[in-house]
Write a structure and sequence with these properties.
single chain; alpha/beta; 25% strand; 3-stranded mixed beta sheet; 3 helices
Length: 154
């Protein structure tokens, strides 16, 4: 019998990284997080199951790079939560126990973010004369770039 995807279960080397196969678990946010945006032990176990099931790469949720201005759901994993690094490390170790690689999706809600006032985006947007999105300044864009860099380094 001929397999439709003969290389699916073959290792794949990208630079200095070798994946045990070519299966990547898509980003899924576990619905129960701490109130400040950290993974719970149950969330780490949720991602560990994907690695145990055979995925070579497990995308551990999305990481909001600016918890104050970048969330688009009330509770999301945020880089600026006091214990975010520790909770992410627990999940990464759980995934690694099964020979998989943990990854993150870096994210920001942009003009769709939940805020107390208008959101920030690339242009001003008014709805019935009411500002709902304000154009970001160059300094704000620079700060957002720094937030992404900080998250990538983490």
């Amino acid at each position: 019998m001929t397999r439709k995807f003969p290389n699916l279960f073959s290792p794949l080397k990208i630079g200095g990284l070798t994946m045990k196969n070519r299966i990547i678990s898509a980003p899924m946010t576990y619905p129960i997080l701490t109130s400040d945006g950290c993974l719970t032990p149950e969330a780490a176990a949720f991602y560990e199951l994907r690695a145990k099931g055979g995925a070579a790469v497990v995308t551990v949720s999305e990481l909001i790079v600016d918890g104050k201005m970048g969330k688009y759901y009330p509770v999301q994993v945020t880089i600026d939560a006091p214990n975010s690094k520790d909770s992410l490390a627990v999940a990464a170790r759980a995934v690694r126990r099964h020979g998989a690689i943990a990854s993150m999706e870096l994210s920001h809600g942009g003009m769709f973010a939940i805020t107390d006032g208008p959101a920030w985006g690339p242009v001003d947007v008014n709805e019935n004369g009411v500002p709902i999105v304000q154009k970001m300044t160059k300094a704000m864009i620079g700060g957002l770039l720094e937030s992404y860099a900080k998250a990538a380094a983490l």
